[in-house]
Specification:
This protein is mainly beta. The chain contains no helices and eleven strands. The strands form two sheets. Strands 2, 4, 5, 6, 9, 10 and 11 form a seven-stranded mixed β-sheet that branches. Strand 4 and strand 5 form a beta hairpin.
Length: 122
C-alpha cells in the first residue's frame, strides 16, 4: 500500500513556475511508475506526465512538452513535477498517482493522492 501526498500548488502568474511534490509513504516509490494528472472544473482528468520505475523514462502530454519536467529523488521517496512558462490553461487540480507501469491512462494506476491546486492568473 502506498500513500501519496501532493504539495507545492498555489497561485502563480502567467509565465511563472511552480514545483509540485509527490511524497510517498508506506512503500518505496522507486518501485513504482509515477504519473501526474490534472483536472480542471467541469473537465475530465487528463494525463500530464509520467516517469517509469525501471529506467526513469519520461512521457509528457503534448500540451506541456517543453515546459514541464518530472524527476525522482529516491532518497526522499518523492517525485517532482517542475512546471515552467505557466498559462491560465494549466489551472487545475493536480494529482499524483503510482502504479506498476507508466501510462497515459489513469486506469493503469493503483494509488492516488488527494491533489494540489494550481491556479494561473493572467
Amino acid at each position: 500500500q502506498v500513500q501519496l501526498v501532493e504539495s507545492g500548488g498555489g497561485l502563480v502568474q502567467a509565465g511563472g513556475s511552480v514545483r509540485l511534490s509527490c511524497a510517498a509513504s508506506g512503500s518505496t516509490l522507486s518501485s513504482y511508475a509515477v504519473g501526474w494528472f490534472r483536472q480542471a472544473p467541469g473537465k475530465e482528468r487528463d494525463f500530464v506526465a509520467s516517469i517509469g520505475w525501471r529506467r526513469g523514462v519520461t512521457e509528457f502530454a503534448d500540451s506541456v512538452k517543453g515546459r514541464l519536467t518530472i524527476s525522482r529523488d529516491n532518497a526522499k521517496n518523492t517525485v517532482y513535477l517542475q512546471m515552467n512558462s505557466l498559462n491560465p490553461a494549466d489551472t487545475a487540480l493536480y494529482y499524483c498517482t503510482a502504479g506498476p507501469v507508466a501510462s497515459m491512462r489513469s486506469s493503469e494506476y493503483d494509488y492516488w493522492g488527494q491533489g494540489t491546486q494550481v491556479t494561473v492568473s493572467s
